[in-house]
Amino acid sequence: MDIQTNPNGSDSGTFAGTVVSVSQGRCKIQNGQIYDGILPKNLTLRQQSELAVGDEVISRQVDRAFCRVEKVLPRRTVLSRKDPKAPHIERIIAANIDIVVVVVSIKEPPLRLKLIDRYLVAVSAGGAKPLLCVNKIDLVHANGRRQAEDALRPYRDQGVPVAFCSAETGQGMEELKRLLSGNLCVFSGHSGVGKSSLLHALDPGSNPAVDAVRKGDRKGRHTTTASALYELADGLRVIDTPGVREFGLSRIEPSELKSYFSEFDAYATGCRFANCSHLEEPGCRVRLAVRDGLIPRARYASYRRLMGEEDAPPPAENQNPETGFRCAHCGNTVLAEGAGSSHRNHCPRCLWSLHLDNRPGDRAACCGGLMEPVAVWVREKGEWAVIHRCKECGAMASNRIAADDNETLLLSIAVRPLSMPAFSLERL
Ligand code: GDP
Ligand code: ZN
Questions:
Q1: Cis omega (within 30 of 0) on the bond before 315?
Q2: Which of 118, 125, 267, 389 shows its CA 20 to 30 Å from the CA of 403?
Q3: pLDDT grade, residue 320 (50/70/90)?
Q4: Cα(281) to centroid of ligand 2, in Å?
Q5: Per the confidence metrics, is the pTM higher than 0.90?
Q6: Are 229 and 54 in contact (CB under 8 A)?
């Protein structure tokens, strides 16, 4: 133990230790032995923002079992979230963690990429490394696993390790242990994905400290609301806190989000609007960079999901399933019912479209520019489609015509080459 003798000659001194549990006004500090830590008033009041499990603290020994916490040392990393009731206050959930294990399952509950995106942003903000743990693989067949691997590949490509395992059958658990051993970790993820089961599977043996706190059912379900650090086998240390388990469901401010997508920065300076959200503004260079493959599509898709653009028909204020949309070119109000599909891509009156799409990738359409109808294309079985060309970026896209599209205008576009022939028609 690293006790310095007190200058006044008493037998109590100060020492550095790790906070291994925090509960109302109290904490436990480990330094060879476990001390009951007494918190000074200012720390008690601001406990959750000032002291967390994993913190390294300087304490003054009071007697054999008690010490008084004097100072919290600077943190290497944190996992924090905003107080849902007071968003300006940052609540530290865990400190000095090496790895945040983001636990997901493919089935029961289903894989939710948006939740993963949120966790990854928060983890990166706090400086720890993320690891994606896909649990319950015993519930899916080879095909389901392959689909999950495809869905998660973009994360792997970003350098996030992905481990497939089953707390139930033990499959993949050795690999998970190998990835985590020697690190201080927290497990977080949606409830029901198997976090408690994984902790139990990682440490099935006797760990009195763990058992005392986890006096739940045989599966190791937690019944406590306290946060604690557990020493498991193989040098793996795990912080378990109720805060971590709820974490990730709090909101991330849109304005804050952009800063976590640093690969946008080089292009964002070229956007027409300085405060461009890169979602639908015209003149957005970020979307052009996505289109041109300079920014990974999967990263942009994560960004859109986090900005709440996942399922909304584009653009949010311009079109909605109940009221249709207002044409950005002619101002016509387009009702949804005439459309014949869940959303339409052009105005039936002027036939203009917006170069925008829900999901980057399906039409490679994401610059936000206005698209002029430039030609008619006759597809298989005589079906007509309008070919649009973006005024902004020049990209072309085709769009099936609807029953209520402006027929006169369609015909005039179709015959336009005849009215402006490139050679003399008399020659024919
Ligand atoms: P937590 O809310 O994330 O802590 O999830 P739990 O550990 O409480 O697990 C939720 C449920 O999923 C429980 O009924 C577990 O028995 C079950 N479960 C956990 N891991 C697995 C697994 O790998 N395979 C299967 N089939 N079920 C699992
Ligand atoms: Zn932009």
A1: yes
A2: 389
A3: very low
A4: 7
A5: no
A6: yes
